[in-house]
């Protein structure tokens, strides 16, 4: 028996997807490969609600973090930092030698449109980067409100990390006007880790033409040139592409709206469960994520022990984001635990795991 994963990535992968990974290899310069690659494009565009190209990189999502900075920022970039992942991304931009300005929030808070507006009005930025769904704190920021602000700053590229929300929450890339929207496979897409997808706008490609030193592996112009021929610039992980094809078919079969509703229902249930059992949410009111709940451990349960015990029953759970809990502990504050409800998990499965946790609530 394996532990069914209720952690915020990698998420549980269904057997029929795992079977796809075991298919015999094919050459990546064959018509069979090109047909496989071409078959992925329409489903990906529908998933992102976009007519933009959706590039595929057989790396994890961080690859597109790096691609977006190295290809679309010459010098000045604005980052919203409201959790561990947005902080890491800003550090990556610094490591790439870019001049980074941060809008900083305390943990558990969402990115606010008015702060973005103010920061963009005060600086000459080439791009604004933000994480839609901060996996470390279970916070989802309001893309629609931020979109209105971005439209007031048309010279600034908008780059959104939707790593833990794409395929769980509706993100209408074209309507919102997102230039680069990137995601990893091992979250709400419910695939094994190892590929990432990103929708890239025409103006982001245009911008890339002006940037020097894009490097090789994550050069979006090289990826685009190959993409147009239904190829990749180098040997991709072909098993992942088979798995993605199957998963896109499964998603279509479920229906996007049904998939988003399932995530919402799981989110609402988990938050109500937390409240009913005497916990409070760590995430800011009104900004709770529908793919992962970050709950303040108000009852001071021993989650390290619970995690161990539940693993004997076949549940893989999370005892909170390590660095966040360390910091909270040092400050004498309540630590957190997370219940992920993303990917192909069902409400019944969430009910099973919460019932198992309940056994330890006194
Ligand atoms: C919001 C967010 N962004 C980025 C990452 C990094 O993605 P990857 O591990 O696929 O590189 C993660 C990983 O958990 C994440 O949750």
Care to give the gist of this entry?
This protein has helices spanning 15-20, 31-48, 62-72, 84-95, 113-122, 143-150, 173-176, 202-208, 220-227, 238-254, 256-276, 303-312, 322-330, 347-358, and strands spanning 4-5, 53-57, 76-81, 99-104, 127-131, 133-134, 139-140, 157-161, 180-184, 196-200, 280-281, 292-296, 315-316, 336-340. The chain has 362 residues and is an alpha/beta fold.
What topology does this entry show?
Layout: E1 4-5, H1 15-20, H2 31-48, E2 53-57, H3 62-72, E3 76-81, H4 84-95, E4 99-104, H5 113-122, E5 127-131, E6 133-134, E7 139-140, H6 143-150, E8 157-161, H7 173-176, E9 180-184, E10 196-200, H8 202-208, H9 220-227, H10 238-254, H11 256-276, E11 280-281, E12 292-296, H12 303-312, E13 315-316, H13 322-330, E14 336-340, H14 347-358
Parallel strand pairs: 1-13, 3-4, 3-5, 5-8, 8-9
Antiparallel strand pairs: 2-10, 6-7, 9-10, 11-12, 12-14
Helix pairs in contact: 2-10, 5-6, 10-11, 11-14
Bound molecules: pyridoxal-5'-phosphate (PLP).
What does this structure look like?
The chain starts with a strand and ends with a helix. The protein contains 14 helices and 14 strands. The model has no long low-confidence stretch (mean pLDDT 97). Helix 4 links the parallel strand 3 and strand 4 (99-104). It folds into two domains: 4-9 and 255-358, Aspartate Aminotransferase, domain 1; 15-253, Type I PLP-dependent aspartate aminotransferase-like (Major domain) (Aspartate Aminotransferase, domain 2). The longest helix is centred in the last third of the chain and has 21 residues, at 256-276. It is globular and about 60 Å long. The protein has helices spanning 15-20, 31-48, 62-72, 84-95, 113-122, 143-150, 173-176, 202-208, 220-227, 238-254, 256-276, 303-312, 322-330, 347-358; strands at residues 4-5, 53-57, 76-81, 99-104, 127-131, 133-134, 139-140, 157-161, 180-184, 196-200, 280-281, 292-296, 315-316, 336-340. Helix 10 crosses helix 11 (256-276) and helix 11 (256-276) packs parallel to helix 14. The strands form four sheets. The protein has a seven-stranded mixed β-sheet, with helices on both faces. A three-stranded antiparallel β-sheet has the order 11-12-14, with helices on one face. A two-stranded parallel sheet has the order 1-13. By secondary structure, the protein is α/β, with parallel strands linked by helices. It binds pyridoxal-5'-phosphate.
